[in-house]
């Protein structure tokens, strides 16, 4: 039997079965007493691999490649507190954080010894700093398991903040105590922070989280397809609501959520992700959380939200109702005014600096082909208002007339051709380095465009827009944006729309700065530039 095959689901659960009572179905009958999950000192919470609602069949918790008759014959008598047999030979162990702790201890000892040798600190101060620095990192969570969605700069930032705060406190207290020891201590701790941040930064990407996905087969497949390979996360198993005819490849699959904690333990998973549509009741989620805590696995619940940044959400409780609040996107207000003023000022300065380059490129374009060097084209701006966008001409003057005789290689409403015969040799170089977009700085100065924003659309494209793409028109189009730094013309129409909508709904000044920084890398890499 292939590992991707799913173990057949047994008898459906009744209402009493959901509450943890006796389950009549399954190959091995057993009882889960409700009192086992009430007190803090119960056997459930002490059991290494608890199952909160009882096991109706040990077969559903085994990997799918184990033959069912062989599995049934090997099942021992299971006590009332449900556990899943796990073979120590196949159990995947999570890497320990002891290596990072040992490295930080070595760093603190080495810097302390250096400070003593150079006469910067006394032996006592150096010893306190060497012993205190790892303890500070332990207290602030430096060696905890990375969380799902944690950025690659979180760990180095935590190390630097810890050292900076300790140094600031020591410097603030030193004048009151009239001693130079605290100054030496602050200097040594700051040096430890910088030295420890380097391996913390490098080590963040060594290993992603091991995940178990729980939900409907279709949702699990979509989650596997949408997961970015750049995160490094590894899906090690899936718990499905029902059997599925479509294969999930070599991914071990299980039916039912009663085994989730045992599956997570068996595969050494760091987190269990319950996808939207799983149909778990609130009581079941709570018991699942308890069982996962017993095996050291984190629980994450899918919200069903699409492209919503965490800073726009918060959990609120009112009148006994726990809900997730999603704030409105910042489409107007002071921050938008700051963006507009800053971008126009920066664009004006950049345009003045680039004037000699623009003049030289215009002359080169005129010498290569007849016609104006600046190409003017009508685009649709904010709120559907048309404007004239400027670009350096990279095609012949009859390019628009020749367009009707070409076949579109793009999907959706975009017209794209990888090897467009209308592009001139000089135009290819201009597009490769995005130099043809330099005149758009004048559009930014005029207020028609922003430095960062959605892709400027043609009137014909907007006429074919559905509901979602029209959301792009609530802000100004940009010279660059998520669409450019993520692949430009290599993107499909759906991917381009999704990136633009993600930018519109989650806009912030910090996001603009990030996109501008990534634009330099995208231009130098020439990805999607055609």
TrEMBL record:
Q: Which UniProt keywords apply?
A: Membrane, Transferase, Transmembrane, Transmembrane helix
InterPro entries attached to this UniProt entry: Bact_transf (IPR003362), EPS_sugar_tfrase (IPR017475)
**Molecular function via GO:** phosphotransferase activity, for other substituted phosphate groups
Keyword check for Nucleotide-binding? no
Question: What subcellular compartments does it reside in?
Answer: Membrane
Q: Which residues cross the membrane?
A: 105-138, 158-177, 183-204, 345-366
For the region Disordered, give the residue spans: 1-24
**Occurrences of domain Bacterial sugar transferase (ranges):** 339-524
Topology class, membrane: Multi-pass membrane protein
A Pfam match: Bac_transf
* This protein's GO CC annotations: membrane
Belongs to which family?
Answer: Belongs to the bacterial sugar transferase family.
The protein's name: Exopolysaccharide biosynthesis polyprenyl glycosylphosphotransferase
